[in-house]
Write a structure and sequence with these properties.
Distance between the termini: 14 Å
Strand content: 15-25%
Order of helices and strands: EHEHEEH
Strand order of the largest sheet: 2-1-3-4
Number of domains: 1
Largest sheet: 4 strands, mixed
CATH topology: Glutaredoxin
Mean pLDDT: 90
Number of strands: 4
Shape: globular
CATH superfamily: Glutaredoxin
Low-confidence stretches: 1-5
Number of helices: 3
CATH class: Alpha Beta
Structural class: alpha+beta
Length: 100
């Protein structure tokens, strides 16, 4: 099993601007991906830039929703509602482990 997806903890941060439909979709989509591919090894922190606007510039967030993979390194960012799970899996560099 690969070190990235083996036993390591994944920390994801989802930046949103209010509880918009796109923000809710993005959260539901990444929760589903984590449930399916990173069960028990993934934590998702939601950062609302309406409540914490200073974090947008500090963390170089220019569009929302934006998902940032904090761990494992290196950082990776994905912008959008995360509805294309295949692109999210590739973008986060989740290696799929075949079950059989």
């Amino acid at each position: 099993m690969n070190q990235k997806t083996g036993n390591g903890k994944w920390i994801l941060r989802l930046y949103i601007a209010g509880r918009t439909p796109a923000a809710r979709r993005a959260l539901a989509n990444i929760e589903a991906i984590c449930d399916q591919h990173l069960k028990g090894r993934c934590s998702i922190e939601v950062v609302d830039l309406v409540e914490r606007p200073e974090l947008a510039e500090r963390n170089q967030i220019f569009a929302v929703p934006t998902l940032v993979r904090q761990l494992p390194l290196p950082l990776r960012k994905i912008i959008g509602d995360l509805s294309n799970s295949e692109k999210v899996i590739v973008g986060l560099d989740i290696e799929l482990v075949e079950q059989g």
